[in-house]
Target: Uroporphyrinogen decarboxylase
Amino acid sequence: MPDRHEDPPFLKACRREPTEVTPIWLMRQAGRYMADYRELRSNVSFLELCKTPELATEVTVSAAERLGVDAAILFADILLILEPLGFDLEFSKGDGPVIHNPVVEPKDVDRLREMPDATPLGFVTEAVAQIRAALPASIPLIGFAGAPFTLACYAIEGGGSRHYDRAKAFMYRDPGAWDVVMSRLVDATAVYLNAQAEAGAQALQVFDSWVGTLSPSDYKRFVQPHMRRLFAALPADVPTIHFGTGTATLLEAQRDAGGSVIGLDWRVELDEAWDRLGPGVAVQGNLDPVVLLSSREEIERQARRILDQAAGRPGHVFNLGHGILPQTPVDHVRALVEYVHQAR
Ligand code: 1CP
Model:
């Protein structure tokens, strides 16, 4: 059994243990807002970068060190898992991800392949091992995957979407085929996340970025049973972060599905949301990423408010409510990290 007293603050907060400072990391902390990243990306495509463990390691580790954050997140993408399941994935310039053979009709579900082990995503588990070896012991590594609903949105829409109308119409029209898609995604994602933990990931975040588009009753009917099965299949000794956006009305149902830490976006007050969630979970969030485009004064004011709302209750991981925007000044991100670290 490892000596948990020596655990870094991020892991302690995930377990709701007291920490001297509030740990902070930021979603999309490695990415286009950094000059080094843009430079690297001028020579390699995004998919190539994800599939080259040495490069994924460099991007992950240099971002974490540059920012002085309390955790690193694996550089990869939630959509990578779609390739071994039989989808033709491309990241086109400017337009974001495209899936050239989306699920359109119920019969297309038969094309979905199974992923009995994580070999097809071996470049990710290799990156996890290399990143873990390169990071100091004081910086835990977060592994991640997309949640089945959010992945199903991409698999059915064929890319990003505003209203997820195709995915939701498919779900309402053919709940049987929907359950098959969701079940396949859960099976593959459980294999993938277990492999990341085995390779050295010390916490696992499940990104259900688009689930806030559902009503609470539809969430409970079409998503929650699958999320429950996914969380139950993850290693019991690794903290799990259950993330979504637009989830103000879904928080209790998400908590009931699983996760040691629940993600909060900026549309909820942290203290009210945490009261609703109760004593059994930690929380992560909840600064609006757009605040990082303002001034240091405003960043500090908003960070202070969030810290005050979390005060006196162990188990807060400071983060944004969603990813860093590409036009964010790096200095503002560093200022936020420093402010959270010195705040009492
Ligand atoms: O260089 C580039 O232009 C690629 C931009 C980029 C990057 C840096 C994409 C394409 N993905 C990523 C990395 C990424 N994606 C990480 C890396 C680690 C980090 O956070 O530092 C993570 C965790 C993700 C997860 C991800 N990908 C999510 C969930 C988080 C979220 O933002 O909600 C989603 C929805 C995606 C899909 C995706 N991949 C890339 C883009 C531009 C998108 C979003 C497309 C859309 O709006 O639908």
About this structure: The chain has a mean pLDDT of 97.
